[in-house]
Amino acid sequence: MKKILAMLLTGVMIIGTLSGCGDGTTEVATAGDSNVSAQATDNASDEGAAAGADTQVLNLRTTAFGNNYDVQDMGWRWMMGDCYEGLYRNVADEDGEHFILAGAESVDVSDDGLVYTFHLRQNAKWSDGQPVTAHDYEYGWKRLLDSSKGYDYASFALNVVGAEEYNKGTGSRDDVAAKALDDYTFEVTLKVADPTFDAKLVATPLYPTREDIAEAAGDNWGKDWTLCVYNGPFCMSELVEDNKMVWTKNPYYWDADNTKLDTVNWFLVAEDSTAATMFENGELDVLQTSGDYATKYSAAAAEGKYVELTSDYPGTVTMNFEFRDGGLSGLMKNVKIRKAISYCIDRDEMVEAIYGRYKPAYGYVAPAITFDGEPWRNQVEEPAKAEYEQYGGDPAKLQALFQEGLDELGVTTPISDITLNLLTSGNTIENQSEREYIQQVISQKLGCKVELNSVGDFALFKAQRDDNQYDMMIGGWWSDYNDPLDYLNTFHTGYYDSYGYYSNPEYDALADSLVGENDMAKRKEIYTQMENMLFDDCALAPIYYNTKQVFLQNWVKDFRTSSFGASQELYITRIEGRNR
């Protein structure tokens, strides 16, 4: 194993990821070649020179640009949360992460928790100077529920009176109780009180949308950035494909006087080594990295050269199984076989050797998720930990468990003649090391063969996944709101088919029992039962929990990252004392 790791890890450089939640998979985005990276470096140098000392320009790095500007479609939230704004905003400060009022100036909630009346800011405007009104919220919410649009996040609003009927085609749009009472009063009536409702309001599908502009754009809405208007602190003002994106301050933003940055430049830089050079030269102001680079910059930060920010992030990378047909091998129907595969993976070893960051995962709900004000993982033990330790990566025990599963299925094929198929996407060195590690540990510890089906393009990965052309696949979930339910609902039958079509009536009954349940102690009990059931069934094999490790130039002030809504709070960031 040590030799395998040495071979896999030679020259490993970790590339940043952009992750899409909507279909519940890990979307690793890579783009560009050396020419693109070199061009980005040249552009950043030009921007830095033009910026001068304390000019309010922030230079950032990404590994890909999104292609969806429709807030109801969730899109890429690191842009959506900075260029758009909803009723609430999720912020991270010295008190931790919490919600503040944003598009709403105040909110009244009825005693029974069913009627929310949002009083909107009358000085909020779109980037073309038009006011942001309650009609924009009503249109956005009802657009989300329009089944002809096919939005994945329609479920966020199904608890609104009349919403489910309209979404299913059995009710009228006019009967959806999300209505503008006047230009600046937006009223929402729920069917049952929901403790997670407030948390969902920071997610972009419940942001407002301008009806006149969206309808005029037609099929191009969300695809052509030049058709967009923005109601957040920044506006997208330039896009050079595979190279550079520019945001500029929105002069009509209601809190523009307190938005310090004039320009945010995003440079597409595929290689960590190039990004590191740019950061060291002062051409990038912020860098999210890992491995040897993270070790190097942590030491430099300890000496005062940079500033280091580390935090948990609400994402869990997993290996998922194909439940509809039992996978290409037909073996994934058996829980003992799934567990034997899962327990082959030494999470601690894999996290240290492959990634050099993250946290080993033995549960599904990530440590960044809180419940009733406290981190979930501080309240509830990781359900896979104890059983995993019983096997301890012992090949004899794992093969015996695997064989028991074969016997239960009536399969007489020797383990050595069995082939399992692992579907993955992404073509970075980290992606390659990840899948080759999993291939090696499963084949060595179980004695079977593991065939890799690796596609670089996410669209191809999705096609293979949706056609059930795998036994196991690398996926994951990045939560859209701060409650364990957003994780647990991914295995609720009919919610997210991309999770291998796992279905358990007892699990669904527990999920359904949460509707209208406002006793937090009872909800915690049900959540715990649901997460434990997932691991009793081995519905998934968790690999690691996401973390963020960000390095800043010393002249970057008040830069904060958050877990929901925007990934960074750039509307309060400023530049002070830039020295190069």
UniProtKB/TrEMBL annotation:
Where does this protein chiefly localize? Answer: other
Q: Name one GO molecular function term.
A: peptide transmembrane transporter activity
Where is this gene product found? Cell envelope
> So which residues are the signal peptide here?
1-20
What superkingdom does the record give?
A: Bacteria
Swiss-Prot/TrEMBL keywords: Signal, Transport
Q: Which InterPro entries match?
A: Peptide/Ni-bd, SBP_5, SBP_5_dom
UniProt GO cellular component terms? ATP-binding cassette (ABC) transporter complex; cell envelope; periplasmic space
- GO process annotations (BP): peptide transport
Q: What SUPFAM superfamilies does this protein's entry cite? A: Periplasmic binding protein-like II (SSF53850)
User: What CDD domains is this protein classified in?
Assistant: PBP2_OppA
- Asked whether the UniProt record includes Iron among its keywords, one would answer no
The Solute-binding protein family domain, residue ranges: 104-494
Indicate the family of this protein. Belongs to the bacterial solute-binding protein 5 family.
What is the protein name stated in its UniProt record?
Dipeptide-binding protein DppE
Taxonomic source organism: Eisenbergiella tayi
Q: Which gene encodes it?
A: dppE
